């Protein structure tokens, strides 16, 4: 597979397994490091969970840009369409929220009203250009892989599949592995599983690897401190260095 200079990491998996928590832990570990370079963190979930976990305050989304493009397309006004097409790069770039040590981009709502394939294509291309302006891109995906698939999948070269110990979580890992095998993540160079929120699972790493059918990037135990931060709506970026989850993510990062 072709080597890419940008690291584009997508975090995916079944609903509720901890994708957003893992993305935040990875952001915490990556930001401000020389090897990371310029970091873009993307919330690809319309529910905007990552926005809250990172405590980012913005109402700008790519979805809003898409609505603007759709409105121009629907207007049938050629002048307006050209204007929006010319401005697209600018519109996308201004959706970025600059935070300390990283830029944040929320995809927002991406409902498809009828078939607007050309609009989606336009947006995907614009997003791809944006991704190229960063050294490291971290994407918190929606449950499953469909949305990442449609939007930025072409550039994803590292896939972190998060699961809990549950049978259904692991079934989703197999499902995603099948999609990768079928070529749905064409630039994928590295894929592995991250077991998260583990409690009372006595399986060895080898046994977990066998169950997942993929290399295991790491195991994060249930972290009461993380759970408490979440319950108190505190940003997971502020987790203490000695939190179980923070320590575990360092080992994961080494494998990415
Ligand atoms: N290692 C962990 N220890 C304790 N609690 C955790 C851990 N990881 C995640 N959680 C908690 O589990 C819940 C679900 O996590 P999270 O929102 O990150 O999942 P998700 O996969 O992003 O969900 P969704 O599919 O809805 O986007 C949250 O309440 C979070 O605080
Ligand atoms: Mg989430």
Question: Can you walk me through this structure?
Answer:
Helix 1 (19-30) packs across helix 10 (244-255), helix 3 (62-75) packs antiparallel against helix 4 and helix 4 (78-93) runs parallel beside helix 5. The protein is globular, with a radius of gyration of 18 Å. 44% of the residues lie in helices and 18% in strands. The longest helix is centred in the middle third of the chain and has 16 residues, at 78-93. With 256 residues, the protein is of the alpha/beta class. It has an eight-stranded mixed β-sheet with strand order 3-4-2-5-1-6-7-8, with helices on both faces. The mean pLDDT is 86. Strand 3 and strand 4 (102-106) form a beta hairpin. The chain has a single domain (7-255), classed as P-loop containing nucleotide triphosphate hydrolases (Rossmann fold, 3-Layer(aba) Sandwich), CATH 3.40.50.300. The protein is built from ten helices and eight strands. The two termini are 16 Å apart. The structure holds adenosine-5'-triphosphate (ATP) and magnesium ion. Magnesium ion binds at residues 19-20, 45, 49, 140.
